[in-house]
Write the structure tokens for this entry.
Amino acid sequence: MPRDTSYDVRARAAGPHRQVAVLPVGSFEQHGPYLPLATDTLVACAIAREIAAAYPVHLLPPVTISCSHEHAAWPGTVSISSVTLHAMVKDIAESLRRSGVEALVLVNGHGGNYVLGNVVQESAGSGVRMALFPALEDWEAARERAGVRTSLLSDMHAGEIETSILLHCHPELVRPGYETTDFIADDRRHLLTLGMSAYTESGVVGRPSLASAEKGKQLLATLADSFDAYFSLVASDEAAGGVPVAKPEGLHRS
């Protein structure tokens, strides 16, 4: 949880940049037999913490339940509708605007949160400059620099990337079994219709056996570097048009 006081936020407002808030958005869904239901939230928070350590941003507590309907076949998964998530983020953005924070970056940890792209897209002219992070290009750069061997297509869920990040940040939460649960299902064209259970019995799609804490550390470091362009965009008063238009960012995994 963030440790800022309101005085910290006020002091940050005296800086040279537009105030920027960072909102981690995770999920509460199955991640196989070895990662916790809160994995996506933990990943989003880990990325957001790296950002907050490197940039003058206002770190918010995470949204912990989101759109995980494709995982409903597994016990423990909890979802809210895309309409509810859309409304939550818009309410948060408006509340921030009233308190003087005019830029919001959504750090998405769950691939099923497609609606976040729409929220950012619709923010044009709202008075709050928004962005969605990381984009597919940011994940690809991080994957290459960290030496992750699994492609983004194959590393879909509870695979090398997510397991590596948790091995780095929360090794006590990673249970035995990731070393022997690799499963590849690259053709998932009917995922939204059939759900994850049509493609994997274990709930895993990826190669977690290749994960390591060092890869997790490098993934986070590279993502923090990639955030520089986003911060420059949302924190600047000179950005063209005032508000960035979203592309399908941060939605490569489920």
